[in-house]
Amino acid sequence: MVPIPRGFAGHPARRQAGRGTVHVPRPRHPLLDLYDRLVAATGGAVDPLVGRDLELLGYDAGYTLVPDEAALAGRRHRDSWLADIHCEAGTIATDRAVVIDVGAAGKGYLIDLIAATLLDADIDRFVVDGSGDLRHRGPQPVVVGLEHPVVPGHIIGTVRLRDRALCASATTRRAWGTGLHHILDGRSRRPVEDVVATWTLADDAATADGLATALFVADPEQLAAFEFSWVRMLTDGRVQWSNDFDGELFV
Fold first, then answer.
1. Rounded to whole angstroms, how far apart are CA atoms 84 and 162?
2. How far apart are CA 120 and CA 55, in angstroms?
3. Alpha carbons 214 and 103: distance in angstroms, whole number
4. pLDDT tens-digit map of 169-221
């Protein structure tokens, strides 16, 4: 979760009223472009402005892990990436204080930056491991286990990873109460309930990371504009996957 100054905010004590503007390092930042596509493809189910809702649910800067039920009940405006964020050449502007949560694809983007640094240094064989999200480069694939989200020490399958990125997400990894975890549906602003884990393969980690989040809140058909393959586990234990998923599932 990224606090944005001058009208954007990441901590209640620093919230400001009014319009805020922040400069981005290039006319159109690739992470912003990816979020634009994800928000549009999912009809707002993926929305980086769930940051304030995460704070109120207890996933705040101080990790209080205690929901502010009064503030949640009293919210009169739901921040919306489409309505409240104005992206122009080199700037992001908003009409009110917001919290931008880059968690949907931010770690994948960081992995891609590290991969690009290695390639710039003429290192063309590597695995960048961002806490389980992977970017591979090299002639020999690596076999990666898909960790079971509920049963520790078990996997539900394997995948051969070569010259691509594999990203995963699960509601069981950052959970702090009954029904409370870090993946929110941007339409309801509540934690998702139907999906417990996702795995995605794509050419870059930012895209794979963002789509791993999108699969919690959208049907795969809505994401047809992206090139990727996937697996997801529903909360009832059923497993779904794309026909082109290059792996083996033990289900």
1. 39
2. 38
3. 12
4. 999 988 998 889 999 999 999 999 999 999 999 999 999 999 999 999 999 99
Q: Helix 205-217 and helix 106-120: axis angle, to 10°?
A: 170
Pairing of strands 91-94, 20-23: antiparallel
Contact yes or no for 212/167 (Cβ under 8 A): yes
Judge contact between 184 and 198, C-beta under 8 A.
no
Helix axes 106-120, 30-41, angle to 10 degrees: 140
User: Which tokens belong to 173?
Assistant: 């990894």
From the list 23, 30, 33, 28, the residue with the least C-alpha distance to 92 is 23
| Nearest CA-CA partner of 39 in 99, 112, 111, 104 | 104
> How many residues are there in the chain?
251
Q: Which residues pair with 130 in a beta bridge?
A: 133
Is residue 250 predicted with pLDDT exceeding 70? yes
